[in-house]
């Protein structure tokens, strides 16, 4: 009897210890002057795209419009710059320009507003291309559930200093988890990378069309994505949040990356029950 | 103060064996003013203490190398303790403490990178968690007071006005 009482007592006491509640509140956040954001991408498969935008205040609806009216150029080292033309009206600029692995590129963004003439520059060297060897679907038990995830295999070159970013699209939809790695621990090896997504619900489904792009990125861009993932996404595990390490000079946030890409796609266990739209089946 | 330590921006401390790679060293300074008043005699005794303080750090690579609040920086710290001998058997006590919330880093804004919302930060530890305060009440009933033996029955009520203490913020989805 007394041991039962003790037991009940312990349960009551320990339940008191762990009582807590969760409430949605509005934290008082001071507005700060807005900053410019540059996203620049140049690849070896003819993507040449720069987006100029601005930060939004924390409680405002995020500004998706971007900034039009800027003069954007990209120049290969020692050559004359290529002008990027506005594309749409969301602050995007494009050009028919293809990067070559091993070469260095200089981005220059000039934008004049009522305050000042803003100039942002950045330099990125396109690393040698590393190709995907294979893409397959892997089944893993994660958080107690069986999940289907994409896995890739590639061969890291013998020299040190390679860095990679993996980008996954499912049915054409970009999956935003940041996957980056560098060759500190995998140098010269054949590497398997499973694109495990830390989300309770996440799993690929039968018939999904999965597209994985392997980007060979330079070290500053590795740092950008790594630090963005560590400290800028509002994760509760972040000990010291901050802005990602940018290679943009002139006070803007963001990145300029010249990278070589290799991509593959796969359908998840396809059979006759899968129906693909014409656009998908053409891929 | 020399050899002050803090996490580098974006430190990974969650599953990292090489924790020394995630910290930076610099200098610190702390200054302040304290007052302490105590009443020792009479039926009602107790004390009041107040501390006004500032603790800062300056570390290359954090906050653009400028002075910033240490996480432990506590601007105000107040304690009031009152003890009242109501009768020979009953003793009442109250205790109120207040201190400034921890220095934390809130985002100042947000922007989009590759279709993903990213938070924009300005200064390290420039914001504050809500202040902490709490009233505790107690009553002690003296049962027996013998030469070698004394027994009392003590009643205490912690956080008498039910102040909800904030442990942490998570971003609402």
Structural Rg of chain B? 23 Å
Strand content of chain A: 35-45%
As laid out across the biggest beta sheet of chain A, the strand order is 8-7-4-5-6-2-1-15-14-11-12
Tell me the helix content of chain A.
10-25%
- Number of helical regions of chain B: 0
Please give the number of β-strands of chain B.
12
Q: What does the main sheet of chain B amount to? A: 8 strands, antiparallel
Look at the helices and sheets of chain A and give the structural class.
mainly beta
**Largest interface by Cβ-Cβ < 8 Å:** A-B, 44 and 38 residues
Number of helices of chain A: 3
Overall mean pLDDT of chain B: 91
Name the structural class of chain B.
mainly beta
Q: Catalogue the unreliable spans of chain B.
A: none
Helix content of chain B: under 10%
N-end to C-end Cα span of chain A = 72 Å
Q: How would you spell out the order of helices and strands of chain A?
A: HEEEEEEEEEEEEEEHEH
**First-to-last CA distance of chain B:** 41 Å
Mean pLDDT metric of chain A: 89
Overall body shape of chain B: elongated
Shape of chain A: globular
- For the secondary structure, the number of strands of chain A is 15
Please render the helix and strand layout as text:
The complex is a heterodimer of chains A (283) and B (173).
Chain A lengths: L1 H16 L18 E8 L4 E7 L1 E2 L13 E6 L5 E5 L5 E3 L9 E9 L4 E9 L6 E11 L2 E11 L7 E8 L2 E10 L7 E5 L14 E9 L1 H13 L21 E15 L10 H4 L2
Parallel strand pairs in A: 1-15
Antiparallel strand pairs in A: 1-2, 2-6, 4-5, 4-7, 5-6, 7-8, 9-10, 10-13, 11-12, 11-14, 14-15
Chain B lengths: L3 E4 L15 E17 L4 E15 L9 E2 L6 E10 L4 E10 L3 E2 L4 E5 L2 E5 L6 E2 L3 E14 L4 E8 L16
Antiparallel strand pairs in B: 1-2, 2-3, 3-4, 3-5, 5-6, 6-11, 7-10, 8-9, 11-12
């Amino acid at each position: 009897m007394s041991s039962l009482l003790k037991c009940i007592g312990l349960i009551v006491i320990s339940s008191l210890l762990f009582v807590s509640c969760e409430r949605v509140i509005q934290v008082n956040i001071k507005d700060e002057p807005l900053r410019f954001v540059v996203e620049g991408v140049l690849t070896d498969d003819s993507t040449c795209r720069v987006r100029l935008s601005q930060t939004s205040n924390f409680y405002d609806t995020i500004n998706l419009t971007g900034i039009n009216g800027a003069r954007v150029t990209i120049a290969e080292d020692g050559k004359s710059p290529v002008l990027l033309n506005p594309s749409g009206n969301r602050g995007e600029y494009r050009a028919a320009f293809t990067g070559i692995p091993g070469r260095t590129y200089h981005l220059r963004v000039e934008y004049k507003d009522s305050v000042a003439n803003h100039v942002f520059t950045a330099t990125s060297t396109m690393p040698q291309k590393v190709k995907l060897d294979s893409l397959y679907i892997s089944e893993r038990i994660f958080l107690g559930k069986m999940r289907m995830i994409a896995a890739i295999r590639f061969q890291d070159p013998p020299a040190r200093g390679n860095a990679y970013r993996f980008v996954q699209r499912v049915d054409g939809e970009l999956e935003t988890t940041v996957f980056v790695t560098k060759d500190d621990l995998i140098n010269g090896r054949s590497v398997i990378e499973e694109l495990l997504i830390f989300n309770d619900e996440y799993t690929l489904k039968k018939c999904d069309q999965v597209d994985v792009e392997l980007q060979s990125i330079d070290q500053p861009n590795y740092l950008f994505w790594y630090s963005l993932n560590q400290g800028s996404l509002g994760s509760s595990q972040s000990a010291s949040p901050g802005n990602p390490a940018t290679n943009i000079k002139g006070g803007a946030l963001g990145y300029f990356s010249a990278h070589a890409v290799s991509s593959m796609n796969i359908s998840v266990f396809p059979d006759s029950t899968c129906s693909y739209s014409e656009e998908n089946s053409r891929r | 103060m020399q050899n002050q330590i803090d996490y580098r921006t974006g430190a990974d401390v969650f599953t990292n064996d090489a924790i020394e790679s995630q910290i930076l060293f610099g200098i610190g300074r702390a200054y302040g003013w304290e007052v302490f008043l105590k009443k020792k005699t009479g039926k009602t005794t107790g004390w009041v203490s107040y501390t006004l303080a500032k603790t800062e750090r300056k570390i290359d690579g954090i906050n653009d190398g400028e002075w910033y609040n240490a996480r432990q920086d506590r601007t105000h710290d107040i304690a009031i303790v009152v003890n009242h001998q109501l009768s020979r058997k009953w003793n009442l006590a109250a205790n109120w403490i207040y201190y400034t919330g921890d220095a934390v880093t809130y985002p100042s804004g947000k922007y989009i990178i590759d279709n993903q919302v990213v938070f924009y930060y300005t200064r390290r530890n420039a914001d504050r968690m809500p202040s902490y305060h709490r009233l505790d009440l107690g009553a002690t009933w003296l049962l027996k007071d013998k030469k070698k033996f004394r027994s009392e029955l003590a009643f205490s009520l912690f956080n008498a006005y039910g102040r909800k203490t904030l442990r942490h913020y998570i971003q609402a989805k």
